[in-house]
Amino acid sequence: MVQEEWRQLLEASLKTRAGSHWLSWLHAGVMRTYAGDLAGAGEAFRASTAACRNVWAVRCLAVLARLRKEPKQAAALYREAMAMQPDLMPLAVECAQTCIDAGDAAALLDEVLPLLPCGLRNRGRLRLIEGRAALAAGRLEHVAEILAVPPTVDDMLEGEVSLSQLWFDYHEQRLSRAENCAVDDALKARVRREFPPPSQIDLRMATCCG
Asked: pLDDT digit string (tens) for 87-140?
């Protein structure tokens, strides 16, 4: 009830000259999103960017595009947001993941990641995502460079297999290319027999089961 009262006060203030501010429109967009009014949220975020082009509203527009199942639009908006705020780790992770999901791995590698400060780009989570992007773009040499010094992912979840999966996927693609064969169940089984991941990246809960 209190939240609804605050929302009504905010909506009323937007109709006043003093209340029609980029930050007010941004908060209105967030409230409308949580209320399920995605169309109204989009209007609010666009009003926020019209009043002052800001990274937060652009990022929220990207989130809305992702909710609408428009990955290309979401990735484009995330890239715009990253150009405005290239030193923000959570934004970089969201942008990178969205670019991969949209099939824009090459754009991520060539346009987005070079914007990041070295200290941020070398963070473990981003190095892992960079490896996935390189794999998606068919740049196996790049993947090999990342796996040669496996990243330490500080926010790795218990049982998360993303590092070992990158290892397996890389070797599957490498053998597929070298031997001109398909990545099928037989090749996957062979990779797991012949190329076990290094212990420092093998965080599977039951390694005996592959």
From this structure: 999 999 999 999 999 999 999 999 999 999 999 999 999 999 999 999 999 999
- Note every long-range contact of 192-195, with CB atoms under 8 Å and residues 24 or more positions apart, other chains counting: 192/168, 195/167, 195/168, 195/171
- Half-sphere exposure in the Cβ direction for 125 (13 Å, CA): 15
- Structure-block tokens of residue 10: 């905010």
The strand ranges marked E within 6-142 are: none
Output the pTM of the full model: 0.84
How far apart (Å, rounded) are the C-alpha atoms in residues 44 and 33? 10
Alpha-carbon gap, residue 46 to 41, rounded angstroms:
9
Q: Which residues contact 139 (CB under 8 A, 6 or more apart)?
A: 109
- Please count the other Cβ atoms lying within 10 Å of the Cβ belonging to residue 166: 23
